[in-house]
Write a structure and sequence with these properties.
CATH class: Alpha Beta
CATH architecture: Alpha-Beta Complex
CATH topology: tt1808, chain A
Oligomer: single chain
Largest sheet: 6 strands, mixed
Radius of gyration: 21 Å
Distance between the termini: 72 Å
Number of strands: 10
Strand order of the largest sheet: 3-4-5-6-7-8
Helix content: 10-25%
Number of domains: 1
Order of helices and strands: HEEHEEEHHEEEEE
Shape: globular
Length: 201
C-alpha cells in the first residue's frame, strides 16, 4: 500500500502584514494628532485608540437623569459638570466619560481638559461595554486618583460606586439596587442622595 507524505509547512521569512507588535501613544501624542483624525468617535484608553459605542435610548435616558440630578445639587460657581468631555490622565489615557464633575467653573477648562487633580466624580453608564468600564477605564481612573467612580450598570440593574483609589485599583466598592438610594459625596462631603429607581430606566 502506498502512502502519501504530508506536505511540509512552508514558513515565510517575511513578517505578516498584521504584526503582533502595536504602538502605544501617549496623551501628548494623541492630542497632537487629534486634528488629523477623521473619526471623532474614539477615545484614548491605555495608549490605544478605542471606538466609542453607539448609545441606545436607555443609555441616553440614564445619562440625562444623572446630569439632571447633579445639576440640582451643585453650584455652577464652584463646580463644572461636563458631559462626554475628555479627562486627561497622563501618560496613556484620555477617556470621555458620560459625566464628570470637576473643580472650578466651566470657564476653568476653556483652554485645557480636566486632569485627575481637578476631578471629584466620574460616572459611566454601561450597557454593552461593561468590560471596558470595569476594566481599562476602572484601572485608569484608580491610577489617576479619581476619588469617586460610579458605574450605572444597565444590564445588572445596579449602580456601582468605587472609592479609595490606589495605583492597583479601587479598594472599596458599594452596589446599590432598586429601592436603594445612592449618596452623593463631593470632596468628602455628602450633598444629597438619589434613588436608584430615578436613574435606571
Amino acid at each position: 500500500m502506498s502512502t502519501v507524505a504530508p506536505t511540509p509547512l512552508l514558513v515565510s521569512a517575511s513578517p505578516p502584514l498584521a504584526s503582533p507588535a502595536v504602538y502605544r501613544i501617549t496623551v501628548d501624542e494623541y492630542e497632537r494628532m487629534m486634528g488629523a483624525l477623521d473619526n471623532d468617535r474614539v477615545e484614548l484608553i491605555d495608549g490605544y485608540l478605542v471606538t466609542k459605542m453607539g448609545k441606545k435610548p436607555p443609555h441616553v435616558w440614564a445619562v440625562d437623569s444623572v446630569e439632571e440630578f447633579l445639576r440640582s445639587r451643585l453650584s455652577p460657581a464652584r463646580w463644572c459638570l461636563r458631559r462626554e468631555g475628555p479627562v486627561r490622565i497622563p501618560m496613556f489615557d484620555e477617556p470621555e466619560p458620560d459625566v464628570v464633575i470637576a473643580r472650578g467653573t466651566c470657564k476653568t477648562y476653556r483652554t485645557r481638559h480636566p486632569e485627575p487633580a481637578d476631578v471629584v466624580l466620574i460616572v459611566e453608564v454601561s450597557e454593552t461595554t461593561y468590560d471596558r468600564e470595569r476594566g481599562e477605564k476602572w484601572a485608569a481612573y484608580a491610577k489617576g486618583g479619581i476619588p469617586v467612580y460610579s458605574i450605572v450598570n444597565l444590564v445588572q440593574a445596579r449602580i456601582e460606586v468605587y472609592t479609595d483609589p490606589e495605583p492597583a485599583g479601587y479598594r472599596s466598592r458599594q452596589d446599590y439596587h432598586a429601592g436603594d438610594s445612592v449618596p452623593l459625596v463631593i470632596d468628602g462631603r455628602r450633598r444629597g442622595q438619589v434613588a436608584v429607581d430615578a436613574i435606571l430606566p
